[in-house]
Amino acid sequence: MKQPASLWRIRSRALEEARRSVKRGSLEGLHDLRVALRRISVTAAALGRTRVARHAKAIARSLSRPRQLEVDRRLLDRVGRLGLLTPEAVTALAARWEKLAGRAARKLARATDGKKTQRLRRRLARLSRKGSGNGIKRLARARRESEAKLARSLEGKDDRTLHRYRLAVKTARYLADDLVTLGLPEASGAARERALQETLGRWNDLQAFRKRLEEAREEAQGRGTVVLAAELEHLLAALDPALDSVRTAAVDASRHSGRVVPIRRLARARA
Description:
- The protein is mainly alpha-helical.
- The chain contains eleven helices and no strands.
- The chain starts with a helix and ends with a helix.
């Protein structure tokens, strides 16, 4: 049975690998860095390390817009390859979004090597040596609390509720992974949560992409770029059925999320 100190070492190592990935210019570097930070935040909150949790979460949040811009640019490229926008329209949007990418790059640099990240790395190093008492019990309790939030259907709920539910699914999944890392068997609902997270992630990405396109359309209308505005209007209409389909899939999946098999006895026995 592993101890929490080993979990902190894993979290610290994942953060370092993500930082190196960003510096290498990996396409997945930004995603990996945000995941590493969010996992640190979830683990720290469960183990009572509130300052570490807040610190990691704040850095991760600073990267939300850069990450979404990265997703939007990939979706724009896909839209162009599918012929849903003319090459001229794709080029015009790409040029405008390139300006935003410069600001995103600065935020990514701060998150990779800034003072806040350096402070977080030092705290993780200390925790890797020190660990946390009653770690498995704390993680198991946090896991039970997180899974309870998933025991309701998303039927009839608004987009804001879906967004909060998506974050709750991530938390539940990360805590389940923590417990597996420490030697407990995988929770029965973990695979279902991974699938639900992917579905909700696609919905979130597509919804945010649609919002950016709406902003681009309004900007084009304001600038009097009639042809671009008209193309974007048609694209938005074409995206709506796909967005509705993904949303419906997420709502359907939430009906089956349910509660996972309790693990308190096993956690108590092995803590």
